[in-house]
Design a protein that fits this description.
Elements lengths: L2 E7 L2 E8 L3 E6 L10 H7 L10 E6 L15 H15 L11 E5 L2 H12 L4 E6 L9 H17 L1 H10 L4 H6 L1 H9 L6 H13 L4 H6 L4 E6 L7 H5 L8 E6 L6 H4 L1 H15 L1
Parallel strand pairs: 3-4, 3-5, 5-6, 6-7, 7-8
Antiparallel strand pairs: 1-2, 2-4
Helix pairs in contact: 1-12, 2-3, 4-5, 4-8, 5-7
Length: about 280
C-alpha cells in the first residue's frame, strides 16, 4: 500500500511516497516534474512483476520546490542530495549502513545531477545508480546561456508559461504524434509550479561541477538510459560517459526524447526491472 509521508527538514516540509517491501530504490525526478512522473515505473515495480522473486521498496520524493515539497535554503544539487539522505535515514533508522545495507538511486535529468552529488558524499549507501537520462558533465557555456534566457522568461512570464513550451519540446516528434493526450496531461500537471523554484534549479544546475570522476570511481554497476531524440541530454553525451564505470549497462530508447519513462514506459519498466534484479 502506498504511504504518503512528510519529512521535517530544517523546518521545511518535504513530501515523499513509500510503497512495497524489499530492496530499497529511490526515484529522483528532474526539473519541472514531481514524483508523479515515475507513475508507470512505480505501478510496474510496486508488487514485483510476474515471475520476479525480487521485491522492492520504492521511495519517491518530491524535490524541494516541486509538487508538495517546500523550498529549502540550500537549493544546490548538494543541498537537495542532503534531503534525499535524510529521507533514507528516516526510513531506515534502525539499519546500520556499515553492516552492508545498500540502496539504488535512479535520477532523471536534474535528478541525476542530485544522484551524483549524493554518490560523491555517500557512496557507502549505494549498490546501484541509474542516470535516466542524465549526465555527469557540467553545463557548457552554451547551455548556461540558454538557462539564463530561460530564467529571464520565467521572471517575466511565469513558471507555467515557460513549462508549457519547454516541457513539450522534451518529447520526440513521434511521441507528439502517438501520445498527444499523455503529453497534454503531463504538461497540465505542471500548472502549480512556482517561478522561484525553477529559477533556483537553473542557477544550481549552472553551478554544478564536472562529476565524471564519480562514475569512474564508483565500484557499483551503473545504468545509463538515453533517448535517441533527446535534445536536453543528447545521446552523444551519454555515449561519452557510459564506458567510464567498471560495470555499465547502456540502453537507447529508439523512439524517445528526454521523457522515456512516459514515451516508452513499457520498455523502461523492463530495463529497470532487469537492472534491479541483477543488482540483487
Amino acid at each position: 500500500m502506498l504511504a504518503e509521508k512528510t519529512l521535517d527538514y530544517k523546518n521545511h516540509s518535504i513530501f515523499y511516497r513509500v510503497i512495497g517491501e524489499g530492496n530499497p530504490v529511490v526515484f529522483i525526478h528532474g526539473f519541472g516534474e514531481d514524483g508523479n512522473v515515475w507513475k508507470n515505473q512505480i505501478d510496474f515495480l510496486k508488487d514485483s512483476p510476474p515471475g520476479n522473486k525480487t521485491r522492492f521498496q520504492l521511495i519517491i520524493p518530491d524535490l524541494p520546490g516541486s509538487g508538495e515539497s517546500e523550498m529549502i535554503e540550500d537549493m544546490s544539487m548538494e543541498g537537495m542530495a542532503e534531503v534525499i539522505k535524510n529521507i533514507i535515514d528516516t526510513e531506515f533508522a534502525k539499519v546500520s549502513f556499515n553492516d552492508g545495507f545498500k540502496g539504488t538511486l535512479i535520477g532523471h535529468s536534474m535528478g541525476g545531477y542530485i544522484t551524483l552529488a549524493f554518490a560523491e558524499k555517500y557512496p557507502q549507501y549505494l549498490n546501484g545508480l541509474a542516470l535516466f537520462p542524465s549526465t555527469a558533465f557540467p553545463d557548457t557555456e552554451e547551455k548556461k546561456l540558454a538557462r539564463q534566457k530561460g530564467i529571464r522568461f520565467i521572471q517575466e512570464h511565469g513558471a507555467f508559461e515557460f513549462l508549457k513550451t519547454s516541457s513539450y519540446n522534451l518529447f520526440s516528434q513521434l511521441s507528439k504524434e502517438k501520445i498527444p493526450k499523455l503529453i497534454e496531461e503531463f504538461i497540465y500537471s505542471l500548472r502549480n509550479f512556482k517561478g522561484d523554484a525553477l529559477v533556483s534549479y537553473y542557477e544550481a544546475m549552472m553551478r554544478r561541477p564536472d562529476r565524471t570522476f564519480i562514475i569512474k570511481n564508483l565500484q557499483i554497476p551503473m545504468l545509463f538510459i538515453a533517448g535517441k531524440y533527446d535534445n536536453a541530454v543528447p545521446l552523444n553525451d551519454v555515449l561519452k560517459q557510459c564506458h567510464l564505470p567498471e560495470i555499465s549497462y547502456f540502453h537507447v530508447l529508439a523512439n524517445s526524447g528526454h521523457m522515456g519513462m512516459i514515451e516508452e514506459a513499457e520498455k523502461c519498466n523492463k530495463i529497470l526491472n532487469e537492472y534491479l534484479i541483477n543488482l540483487s
